[in-house]
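name: query_chain
kind: protein
chains: 1
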Amino acid sequence: MVKQSLEHYHINQFTRLPKGESAADQIEINQLIGSKLVGLDLIGPIGVNLEWTNNYPVLDLSLATTTSYQTVCIKCQKEIEQKIDSSDQYEYSRNNDDLNYQIHSDDTINLTQAIIDTTALDLTEYPVCKTDCRGLCPECGIDLNSNPNHTHKTS
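structure:
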């Protein structure tokens, strides 16, 4: 596992691969990204697997991220842990108009945006503690999962 800056990730070993050849790398991120991902409360580090393929003049990246974060069930408001396991493809080149995916003259790239984008792909829009969560009583707020027979008398 290589420790280097995400903003200046060195790729010279991958750009020197024979055309069509691939090589892999792994990194672990302990900070930075969570705050840029809509304020996620990360439980542990983000594991990042990178597979580079030299398709000169571009460098293709298959990127996969795994992590867990703390959030709240939208139905019952209990704290829950959600796992992220996502992957995506990116193309880096020296002539890319998108500065997030450009190879710089010193053979470095900025991996930050690709990692953020890939990790965000697997975020749950409406997290629930379980698929059959009953939520909270709209009248009194009691947890209907713990009190499945809860009712209110109507007058």
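note: Residues 112-120 form the longest helix (9 residues).
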